[in-house]
Amino acid sequence: MGKSSLTLILFLTVFGNVFSLEKSEIFQSLTVDEGLAQNSVIVIEEDSYGFLWIGTQAGFTRWNGTTLINYPRKDIDAFPPGFVNLINSTFAVNIVR
Q1: Per the confidence metrics, is the pTM higher than 0.70?
Q2: Long-range contacts made by residues 18-21, C-beta under 8 angstroms, separation at least 24?
Q3: Considering only CA atoms, which of 51, 75, 71 is closest in space to residue 63?
Q4: Alpha-carbon distance 60 to 80, whole Å?
C-alpha cells in the first residue's frame, strides 16, 4: 500500500466522522412545572412573530422560547365554551394585545 493511499485512509478515518454528523434537533418539553397552563396540550400553532401558541383544556399559552404566558379561558370573553382545539395565530395575536 502506497504512502498516498495510507494518508487518504487516515484522513477519511479521522475526518469522515466529522463530516457525517447530522445536525441534531433541540427538543424541550414544557409542563406545568415550567409554567404551562395544563399538561394536556391539544393544539400548537406558530404565529408570524415566531411565538408558539399552545392550546389546552385550561386556555392557551404563548411561548417565545424562554417565557410562558398563560391566557386562561375564563379571562377572555372571546373564548367559546369547551376546549381550545384550534388556534388561528392572527386571532391569538390580536386578542391579547
Answers
A1: no
A2: none
A3: 51
A4: 13
Does the residue 26 lie in any domain?
Answer: no
Cα–Cα separations (whole angstroms), residue 35 to 10, 21, 29, 86? 51, 34, 11, 21
Q: What is the pLDDT of residue 97?
A: 46
Task: Return the percentage of the chain with pLDDT > 90, whole number.
Answer: 4
User: Is residue 10 assigned to a domain?
Assistant: no
Place of cell 404566558: 69
- What is the pLDDT at residue 29? 82
**Segment 17-24 mean pLDDT:** 62
**Domain range for residue 55?**
41-95
Number of separate domains in the chain? 1
